[in-house]
Design brief:
It is built from 16 helices and 23 strands. By secondary structure, it is α+β, with helices and mostly antiparallel strands. The relative contact order is 0.05.
Length: 664
C-alpha cells in the first residue's frame, strides 16, 4: 500500500495528490473534498493501466462529495531526466476546464446564428424564385403553343429575331435577318390575292405608325397554305412595355375551325334575319287581311242593325236583317277562334281531349250543313263513308274542325256545277287502325309555287282566283297542326284549273260497340218546351249587356234570375238564400273582387245541405281544355263558352236540374 504524501489545493479548485513509487494512494487526511476511497480505487486502476501500456482516457472523471464532476489527470514526477517513481494526480472541476469553451461556444453561436438564418432565407428565396420562374416558363410555353410562329421585330433597324418559326420559314431563313426577307418568305404561302394586303399591313412603316399611336395590338386574318390546302390563320402585332420601344412581337396562330364556326354563325344569323323579315312581312299581311276580314262582318252587323231599327214595323225585312246579322256574327266568331287556335298551336298548348265517338256519325254531322250549301250554290257534293269499325277513341270537335276547314275551302274555290267529294274509309283493322279522309274538288286548284307555302300561317293563294275570297289564311296551318297532333299525315295534290285533293291519314284506337250506346251528336240539342219553367237561377256576370241578354233569354224560358255582379256577391246571395232555393248557378269566370273559380270553391265549402249539389255552370270566353279542367277542379258541373249558345245552355240546365225540377 502506498503512502499518502501530500495534497495541494489550487486556486481554481484543482487538487494535486502525491503518491509513492507504487502508485498507491493513501487518503488519511480528513479534509479531502473528494471521496478518497473512490479516488484511490481509480488511481490504482489508472496506474495499473499505465504500467500495462494502455493509454489513459481523456474524459475519465470522478465526482466529489458535492456531486460535482471532476477530471482526473496523471503524470510521472521526474527530476531532470531521472524518474523518481512518483506520480502526480490532478483533479479539476469540469466547469473550470470548460468555462472558456462555453463562452467561446456562446459567442460562436451568436455569430453563426444570423448567418445561418440569412443562408436559410436566401435558400428559401432562391427556391421560391426558381419555382415561380418554372411556373412562368410553363405559362409562357402554354401560350407559345397556341402560336405556330413567334418573331421579334425591330421596326427601326428593319430586322427580325426568330423565337419560334414555322416549319416552312425555319427551313428557309436563319434565326436572325432582314425583316423584308421574312415577309417575302411568309408571303410565299399566303393566298395570292391576300399577299399585297398582308405585306402592306405588316410592313415596318405600318408598324411604326401603329407604335406612334400607342396601339397595343393589331392584326388580320387570311388564308395560308398548309401542304396542299389553305386554312385560316391570324397574324397579330403586339406592342408591350416589357419590350424595347423600337420592337414588337409578330405572332401567327391557326384559326381555321374558329373561322368556319364564325361563318356558320353568321349564316345562321343571316337566315334568322331573313326568316324574321319574312315572318314580319307575313304577319303584316295577316293583320291587313284580318283587319279586312273582321271589318267585313262587323260592317254587316253594324249596318244591318241600323237597317233593322229603321224597319221595326216591317217584320219580313227585320227577319232578313237579323238572319244576316247572325251569319256575320258566326263568321266573325270563326275568325276569332282561328286566331286563338293558331296562337295556341304555335305555343304548343293544344290538348286533345279524346273520348269515345262514332266516327261515321261525326263525319255525317260535319257534312250535313254543306249539303244545304251545295244545293244553294248548285254544286255536286258526294259523301262516302266505308268503315268496318266506326267506334274509335278521338276528339270529335277537332275532327269536325279539320273537315270543316277543308270543305269550306273546297266550296270557296269552286264554281256552280263543280264537284266536291268527301270520302272516309278504314285502311286496316288492327287495334290501332288507320283511317283515311279524302277531300277532293274540281275547282280552280293551286299553283305549283304556292303548294310549299300552303301550310304557312297567313298565306293565301290568289293567283288564279277572279274574286276576293274571305279568310285569314289560318285554316290550312290549323289543319296541319291538328293532324300532326293526332299523329297523322296530310298529303296535297293540286293543279291550276284541275282542282285539289287532300288526303289525311289518322290512326285511331278501335273501341267495341256497346249495346244501346248513344253515338256522339253534333246537332244543336233542343230542350223540351217549358222544361225549365219555374227554375230559379243565380247569374254571376260583371258586364251589364251580357247580364241583360242572359236575364232576358232565360226569362223567355220561364226562368227566374237572381243577379250578382261579381263572385263575392254570388257567394253572398247563395248564402242568404234558403236551402234548395237556387236550382243552378251561371258563373262568369273573370269578375272583380272574386273570380268564378274562387266563388265556386267558396260555395262548395259552405255548411249547408245544397252547397255540394247545386249545379254550377262556368261561362267564359276561353274554351280550351285546360280552362275546362280548371273549372272542374273548382267544383263546377259544366262549361259553356262565350258567346253563349242559349239553346245549348238550356239543354245543359235541363240535364243538370232534372226533368222533375230541383235537385234535392
Amino acid at each position: 500500500m502506498a503512502r499518502f504524501i501530500d495534497r495541494v489545493q489550487a486556486p481554481d479548485g484543482s487538487s494535486v495528490y502525491l503518491c509513492d513509487e507504487n502508485g498507491s494512494l493513501i487518503c488519511a487526511s480528513t479534509d479531502l473534498e473528494i471521496d478518497s476511497n473512490e479516488l484511490a480505487e481509480y488511481v490504482n486502476r489508472l496506474v495499473k493501466g499505465i504500467q500495462e501500456g494502455a493509454p489513459a482516457d481523456y474524459d475519465v472523471s470522478i465526482r466529489d462529495l458535492d456531486g460535482q464532476a471532476r477530471g482526473v489527470y496523471a503524470a510521472p514526477v521526474e527530476i531532470g531526466k531521472i524518474d523518481t517513481g512518483w506520480m502526480v494526480y490532478l483533479t479539476t472541476p469540469f466547469d473550470t476546464i470548460l468555462h472558456p469553451l462555453n463562452r467561446f461556444s456562446t459567442l460562436f453561436a451568436l455569430l453563426v446564428a444570423p448567418c445561418a438564418l440569412a443562408l436559410l432565407a436566401l435558400a428559401w428565396r432562391s427556391w421560391t424564385a426558381g419555382e415561380q420562374a418554372r411556373r412562368s416558363d410553363d405559362i409562357a410555353r402554354a401560350l407559345s403553343n397556341r402560336y405556330y410562329a413567334v418573331y421579334r421585330v425591330n421596326f427601326i433597324t428593319d430586322t427580325y429575331e426568330m423565337a419560334k418559326g414555322s416549319e416552312y420559314v425555319s427551313q428557309r431563313l436563319p434565326p436572325k435577318g432582314p425583316y423584308p426577307e421574312l415577309l417575302r418568305v411568309i408571303g410565299e404561302v399566303i393566298e395570292p390575292e391576300a399577299f399585297r394586303e398582308f405585306a402592306d399591313s405588316f410592313s415596318s412603316a405600318k408598324i411604326r405608325k401603329l407604335a406612334d399611336k400607342r396601339l397595343q395590338e393589331f392584326g388580320e386574318d387570311f388564308l395560308r397554305r398548309f401542304g396542299e390546302e389553305y386554312r385560316w390563320v391570324s397574324a397579330r402585332v403586339l406592342f408591350d412595355e416589357t419590350l424595347r420601344s423600337d420592337e414588337v412581337v409578330l405572332i401567327f396562330r391557326e384559326i381555321d375551325a374558329e373561322k368556319h364556326q364564325q361563318f356558320q354563325e353568321r349564316k345562321l344569323l343571316q337566315e334568322a334575319l331573313a326568316s324574321a323579315k319574312r315572318s314580319e312581312k307575313a304577319k303584316q299581311t295577316f293583320f291587313s287581311n284580318m283587319s279586312h276580314d273582321m271589318r267585313t262582318p262587323l260592317n254587316a252587323i253594324q249596318n244591318l242593325s241600323a237597317l233593322a231599327l229603321e224597319h221595326v214595323d216591317q217584320a219580313e225585312k227585320c227577319q232578313s236583317y237579323l238572319e244576316k246579322i247572325a251569319y256575320s256574327s258566326r263568321q266573325l266568331l270563326g275568325l276569332v277562334n282561328d286566331i286563338l287556335d293558331i296562337s295556341r298551336m304555335e305555343q304548343r298548348k293544344v290538348v286533345l281531349d279524346n273520348q269515345r265517338l262514332d266516327l261515321a256519325r261525326c263525319v255525317q254531322n260535319c257534312a250535313s250543313p254543306f249539303q244545304l250549301q251545295a244545293e244553294a250554290e248548285q254544286k255536286q257534293f258526294v259523301v262516302e263513308c266505308d268503315l268496318k269499325d266506326r267506334y274509335v277513341l278521338g276528339n270529335a270537335a277537332r275532327i269536325d274542325q279539320i273537315l270543316n276547314n277543308l270543305l269550306s275551302n273546297a266550296f270557296k274555290f269552286t264554281e256552280p256545277g263543280d264537284r266536291i267529294f268527301l270520302g272516309v274509309h278504314q285502311v286496316n283493322g288492327m287495334e290501332r287502325s288507320q283511317y283515311q279522309f279524302v277531300i277532293q274538288d274540281s275547282g280552280i286548284g293551286m299553283s305549283e309555287d304556292f303548294l310549299p307555302k300552303l301550310f304557312e300561317p297567313y298565306a293565301r293563294e290568289t293567283r288564279f282566283s277572279q274574286r276576293k275570297t274571305p279568310g285569314t289564311g289560318l285554316g290550312m296551318p290549323l289543319v296541319k297542326n291538328l293532324v300532326t297532333e293526332m299523329s297523322g299525315q296530310i298529303r296535297v295534290e293540286s293543279h291550276p284549273g284541275e282542282g285539289s285533293v287532300f288526303t289525311i291519314t289518322i290512326p285511331f284506337f278501335i273501341l267495341d260497340p256497346e249495346p244501346g250506346s248513344e253515338p256522339v251528336q253534333h246537332d244543336q240539342p233542343q230542350p223540351s218546351p217549358g222544361a225549365l219553367a219555374g227554375k230559379k237561377l243565380l247569374v254571376a256576370e260583371d258586364n251589364m249587356l251580357n247580364m241583360e241578354i242572359a236575364t232576358e233569354v232565360l226569362s223567355m224560358e220561364g226562368i227566374e234570375t237572381v243577379q250578382a255582379w261579381n263572385g263575392r256577391e254570388a257567394v253572398e246571395h247563395f248564402s242568404a238564400s234558403a236551402p234548395y232555393e237556387i236550382d243552378a248557378i251561371l258563373m262568369d269566370m273573370q269578375m272583380p273582387e272574386m273570380d268564378g273559380c274562387e266563388a265556386a270553391r267558396a260555395i262548395r265549402a259552405l255548411a249547408r245541405p245544397d252547397a255540394k249539389t247545386v249545379p254550377i255552370i262556368a261561362v267564359t270566353a276561353n274554351a280550351f281544355a285546360e280552362d275546362i279542367a280548371a273549372t272542374t277542379a273548382a267544383g263546377m258541373n259544366a262549361h259553356v263558352s262565350k258567346p253563349i249558345d242559349f239553346k245549348l245552355l238550356c239543354h245543359t240546365l235541363s240535364q243538370l236540374t232534372g226533368a222533375e225540377g230541383k235537385l234535392h
